[in-house]
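Entry 12.
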Amino acid sequence: MIVKMTKYSFLVYHKQYLEFLERIKEIGVLHIIEKPESILENDILRDKMQTASHIKSALKKLESYRPKGAELAPFDKNRDGLAVLKEVENALNEKERLEQLLAQSEKERDSMEVWGNFSSEQIEKVREAGFVLNFFATSVQKFDPEWEIQYNAFEIDQVGSTIYFVTVTRPDETVDVDADRITLADKTTPELDAEITKIYAQIRTLDDEIKHRAVSDYNTLKEAEVQTLTDVAFNKALLSTQSEADDKVKLLEGWCPDGSENALNTYLQESHIYYQTSEPKEDENVPIKLKNNRFARMFEFIGELYELPNYFARDLTAFFAPFYVIFFGLCLGDMGYGLLLMLAGLYLRKKVQDVAIKSVMSLLAVLGGGAVVMGMISGTFFGIELLEVNATWFQSFKVMMLTPENLFNNALILGGVQMLFAMILRWIHSVQRHGFLASFSHLGWLLLLIGCGGTFGLSFLGKIDNPEITKWLYITFGSLSGICIFILNDIKRNVFINIGSGLWEAYNMIISLFGDLLSYIRLFAVGFSGSVLGLVFNSLAFDMGGSLGIPVASQLVTLLILLFGHSINIAISLIGSFVHPLRLTFVEFYKNAGFEGGGKKYKPFEKYKEETQIL
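Predicted 3D structure (tokens):
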């Protein structure tokens, strides 16, 4: 459900304005209407946002250095957070510089190693004697023995198929060989080894310093991030302010959600700030705050993967959530996998502290529970076909299990139910938003699908055995739906335009409904493929293990194949079970429900705090 918003417009005397903003920030319920053109052009704000980005990056790096189980030092109010940031960045940058230098030194040492131990002074002595040393590398096949005579080539070393050699020539001679010329480092191998040892020691010292800072400076840096982002919000508020009456009066506008306005109204009345309230208009970009029950709230982040609904549309989270659990269970298709998922979600929910992750773990447990139920219906437990179990005590459970053919049919039935449910939601919302007279087109399709479809179903099941009644039901529902679809689809237009528009809509609707319904076959296909793959791994494990004929080894091989195979199958099935219901929700369900997106999230002007999803 989308929380109702009220628009506030404030007129504040310029000398009171900063104090007014501070109080609004403390109350923390007003979503300020920003002016992007002013914000993008402000250098101060851009610098603060860049600083916040640097702090976030530094915090992330410190988290990777923090010793496991270390207790963080409390925020030190006597230290400047930006100064701490500079110190941390200096340490991190210095370590990065040393690591690059180490890589370069190790590369030079490796290139020098094949030439043996000599110094640049020795090469200089050779040059003073009137000779030039040239260093080369080439493959064994390309090395020409004639070079030994022509250029005084001496083989120094051979590593694999590569020969390293040096030529001794006069300065005026040109060495023309099919080989790569090597430029030697300025330092000898022992000097490079000493340098590498020194760099390693410096890196270890920096590592110890950064690990210490990851504990001692983390909360101080975190507080600096909070303060910086709060300043960013404050500056955005200032830049979103409009000056009136020769800059004597400041105009600010914002949105306040229903149920949060009491503290704001109390402050405004006590401080005698002039303000006006108004209802949102269709052309305004109203922020979105969702309010759902505990079950639906777990699925809000799934809806946000697509986009938030338009304020004047309907939040569909609570309506797609039950279907998503069923679809996930059908796609996973195995009661054993669902049980593991449910237990993992319940266990991890108790272990994690972050409320956002707790929410995800709760959802994992719920989806696992759905997979257990749907896995029981599909009759699969870790790849074992339960319909093939002949135990006497198990026969009563088989009544609820479906064959693959029935699962296929039920996938289509579930798709039809969800699509029809979506169309009902669309019609109800159209009536609420635009009035009953504007909803005849949606009503017509519901009459056709529910009326004629219901008549066919009842006749097929033998509930209506009178052909005359069946005929008149078809005529009645068909006529009413035809009038709504082709004549009354827009009562403000000419009837002939409506007929043409209705024919085009009918063509698109029929093709769309047929294509959408077939999309739900994926629920059966994904689940069935996972079950078959699990069965294959079971057969492979027991066949290979049994063929060994060695008691302990046979069981061990069987167990390893089962663990490996089902681990792969669970991973693949989980991806498919998450993605395919997501696709059915965002395409088929959203389309038939008339989903309107484009909403932006409600973000009140307040002291910065981490976004979390609380259950």
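Annotation: The chain has a mean pLDDT of 85. The longest strand covers residues 5-13.
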